[in-house]
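hey m, so remember when u said the tokens were messed up on ur end? i reran from scratch. heres the input so u can diff it against urs
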Amino acid sequence: MAKLTAVLSLVLLAAAVTLLAADVSGKWVAQVPGRDGQTRETTFNLKADGNKLSGTVSSPMGDREILAGQINGDDVSFSVAMEFNGQAVKILYKGKVSGDEMKMTRQREGSDRTQEFTAKRVS
């Protein structure tokens, strides 16, 4: 009986966390700092499914599929795969949603250097 109660408690807790996940579905636009110091408009087309996040990141460098997207309350995280000079690179994104704004950071996997920017929901 105690095991059943523990299992039911875990299921209810998981359901509550999913219900509390921020609503991030939609189109978000940000001015993202580039390597040369200039900003570039980047569009995030996001789709939430419970605590899973999918979609695309579109920039002047093309469209990239979101990989390993997660939502945990107001926090989102995902990565995109890119190629620079023939080298495969993974860019890691983390953000915190507050209404129609998302404060974000991005960094190249394996690097300590981060870039900060704010994305705004446009639809």
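this time it looks ok to me. The first helix runs from residue 2 to 20. if urs says something different then somethings off w ur setup not the seq
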